[in-house]
Structure formats: C-alpha cells, structure tokens
C-alpha cells in the first residue's frame, strides 16, 4: 500500500469553501476509485487554516489514476488560489499488512 499525506495551509477567507471542496473530493475518491482504500480529511483543532489528508492507495498506479480523475482536477483547479502552502509526503505503509 502506498501512502500520501498532504498538509494545506488555507487563506482565512477560503476555509469554509476549501473544507467543503476537499471533503467532496475525498468522498468521490473513496466512492469511485477502486485503488483508493482510505482518504481521511483532518483539520487542526488549534489552527482552522491547517488541513491534513491521509490517503491510502493500492499502488502507484492507483495514485496516478487518482491524480487524473475529473473530481481531483476540478477540486485542484478551483482551490489552488486558496492555498497558502501545500506539503506532500509519500511513503509505503508497513503495518498493518
């Protein structure tokens, strides 16, 4: 299994709109992408501008398929100006198997 974590710092005036967009993207990913096993959207309790995603995919091909979906491309384009900072980490899940 391949892991993506993504941290977003969102401009204050876009927090509510970004939350709705990223939650919908996660829902669509789980519902329509067979290689997407988990897509958690989290927000920092102390800093509402900070969002954290935990995504679990079957393999690299599933990640690449996700990055080409209409829902991902639409969300990414719609929210790009709202993002102050975006940090991506990629890894492999070791446990549980």
Question: Topology, please?
Answer:
Elements: E1 2-10, H1 15-32, E2 36-43, E3 50-57, H2 60-66, H3 70-79, E4 83-92
Antiparallel strand pairs: 1-3, 1-4, 2-3
Helix pairs in contact: 1-3
Structural class: alpha+beta
Strand content: 35-45%
* Integer-rounded radius of gyration: 13 Å
Mean pLDDT: 97
Query: How many distinct domains?
Result: 1
Helix content: 25-40%
How many alpha or pi helices?
3
CATH architecture assignment: 2-Layer Sandwich
Q: Strand arrangement, largest sheet?
A: 2-3-1-4
Shape: globular
Beta strands, count: 4
Enter the CATH topology name: Alpha-Beta Plaits
Runs with pLDDT <50, length 5+?
none
Cα(first) to Cα(last) distance is: 8 Å
H/E series: EHEEHHE
How would you sum up the major sheet? 4 strands, antiparallel
What is the name of the CATH class?
Alpha Beta
Describe the fold and architecture.
The protein has 97 residues and is an alpha+beta fold. The chain has one domain: Alpha-Beta Plaits, CATH 3.30.70.100. The protein contains 3 helices and 4 strands. The protein has helices spanning 15-32, 60-66, 70-79; strands at residues 2-10, 36-43, 50-57, 83-92. The protein has a 4-stranded antiparallel β-sheet with strand order 2-3-1-4. A hairpin with a 6-residue loop joins strand 2 (36-43) and strand 3 (50-57). Helix 1 (15-32) runs antiparallel to helix 3. The termini are close together.
């Amino acid at each position: 299994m391949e892991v993506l974590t993504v941290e977003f710092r969102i401009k204050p005036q876009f927090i509510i709109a970004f939350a709705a967009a990223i939650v919908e993207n996660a829902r669509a990913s789980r519902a329509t992408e067979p290689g997407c096993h988990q897509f958690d959207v989290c927000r920092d309790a102390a800093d509402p501008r900070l969002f954290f995603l935990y995504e679990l995919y079957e393999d690299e091909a599933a990640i690449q398929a996700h990055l080409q979906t209409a829902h991902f491309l639409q969300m990414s384009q719609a929210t790009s100006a709202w993002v102050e900072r975006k940090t991506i980490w990629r890894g492999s899940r070791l446990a549980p198997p």
